[in-house]
Amino acid sequence: xxxxxxxxxxxxxxxxxxxxxxxxxxxxxxxxxxxxxxxxxxxxxxxxxxxxxxxxxxxxxxxxxxxxxxxxxxxxxxxxxxxxxxxxxxxxxxxxxxxxxxxxxxxxxxxxxxxxxxxxxxxxxxxxxxxxxxxxxxxxxxxxxxxxxxxxxxxxxxxxxxxxxxxxxxxxxxxxxxxxxxxxxxxxxxxxxxxxxxxxxxxxxxxxxxxxxxxxxxxxxxxxxxxxxxxxxxxxxxxxxxxxxxxxxxxxxxxxxxxxxxxxxxxxxxxxxxxxxxxxxxxxxxxxxxxxxxxxxxxxxxxxxxx
Length: 307
Fold this sequence. Notes:
Blueprint: E1 9-12, H1 19-49, H2 56-82, E2 88-91, H3 92-125, H4 130-133, H5 136-162, E3 171-172, H6 179-183, H7 191-212, H8 214-221, H9 227-255, H10 263-287, H11 289-306
Parallel strand pairs: 1-3
Antiparallel strand pairs: 1-2
Helix pairs in contact: 1-2, 1-10, 1-11, 2-3, 2-10, 3-5, 3-7, 3-8, 3-9, 5-7, 7-9, 9-10, 10-11
């Protein structure tokens, strides 16, 4: 961090200030967080064990669930613990670390959704060449590239932050550390840094959303399929489209407009960090017969072995 810093601790302004409301939030959000961990963990376990789910699509899905657990835990474990404390604090170094992992895992998740969109495009629009194009080697490269892209994105953000001096005030009007709220605490002009952050975060989200729009090409391509073919293809893509909408909607809302640490931004961030990751396993299992059957076979086998 910059040598001119004299601020070592940050204080957070939570979603609600009333202690009674905070305790109610703790009772509500803790089960949601646990449901998110269990649901995504079940998908990771099922894909890794079930031989019927070793296709490229489910390989990417397992990593998506793993990233969602990690990304939400980076933010929500501290948030849930803070609901039981009167003063919410974090060191400046801890704040920077939280920003790094949040953006690292968030962008990795974005790129994994792009990989899954490309996988569905090849499977539906070029079915005869699917196994040739989406080989296991390419799948590993795309997933590794997603992790690398997330790391490069996040390290750029951190290099921006560590060059800034922070000398007070030390109050962040948010329930976790993010770039724009922290930039407001720097005791220097951060216009250039703010533009760089906007370009790196906001435009990156739009670029990824454009790539995910391959689903539009899929829908256009389905016009030439039979009614049964369209039904099967749409049942496969419906869950992906729902997850993409739930993911990119809040991201674009938060990062593609001027920063505002108002209550609505905090609520959207809650939706983005825990509600969407909790809904994803439900969407994928309810809309995907293969995943449902694999889960039932997995648990049925365990119950039989116990008997």
